[in-house]
UniProtKB/TrEMBL annotation:
Residues 7-61 form the HTH cro/C1-type domain. InterPro entries: Cro/C1-type_HTH, Lambda_DNA-bd_dom_sf. PROSITE patterns: HTH_CROC1. GO terms for molecular function: DNA binding. This is HTH cro/C1-type domain-containing protein.
Length: 104
């Protein structure tokens, strides 16, 4: 699920208006609306405020936002898919090397 859909679902699940969330997060209502419509992506600071307001896990939210930033910037296409595979391979290698260093 993308961040905009998640944000809207959280807000509607609490029966809150954009105005209420804007006041609670100190984020402009228009900007929150753009997040929900997937026209903008929040900054890390804005994401922290949203996570705190809705009492959701910040790390999980940041992971979702990082993925969305990549998609927003590069699109969903074969090149992005292959690049993501290269990143995945690099992390597997990093994880393996990290575990080997800890064992020695």
């Amino acid at each position: 699920m993308d961040f905009g859909t998640k944000l809207k679902g959280l807000r509607q699940g609490r029966n809150e208006t954009l105005h209420t969330v804007a006041v609670g997060t100190n984020i402009d209502m228009t900007l929150l609306s753009k997040f929900e419509r997937k026209e903008r992506i929040p900054t890390d600071e804005q994401a922290k405020r949203i996570a705190k307001y809705f009492k959701i896990d910040l790390q999980e939210l940041m992971i979702e936002l990082t993925a969305q930033k990549i998609i927003f910037e590069y699109g969903l296409n074969d090149t992005t898919y292959e690049a993501a595979n290269l990143v995945r391979e690099a992390f597997v290698e990093y994880s393996t090397n990290s575990k080997e260093k800890k064992a020695t």
